[in-house]
Sequence to fold (144 residues):
Amino acid sequence: MGLLSFAKNIGKKIFGSDDDDAAEKLQKHIEEDNPGISNLEIQVEDGVATIKGDTQDPSALEKVILMAGNAMGIEEVRADEVTAPAQTATVEYYEVQKGDSLWKIAANAYGDGNRHPDIFEANKEVIQNPDLIFPGQMLRIPKD
Fold:
């Protein structure tokens, strides 16, 4: 997965300004809706989250990166030490813009807004409520 940049000053507020507290809370956040990663370890320093762990699903790695990166205070996620198979599906990443909805994103990505549940399913660990997405949030868009 290529490097994705994230907006440090927006996102879900999971932790305060203490880096030690950030790693613990970010790990707890990911484990609550774990997309399929084991032996998860997270370190946070100066807005950079470093993730270690193992997964058999390349989509799980993508979701963990998005879950960490969409947290307020994180501007970069490094996952070089995660053991995962290579992604074989075609996946694009989309940064939510002001005024977007999953329907609008699906209409642009697939040519059919009625496919918005496909985007929600691909990101259900990243967005718990399909009506609550925010500008700057990064989403996975699986392609056919």
The first helix runs from residue 19 to 32.
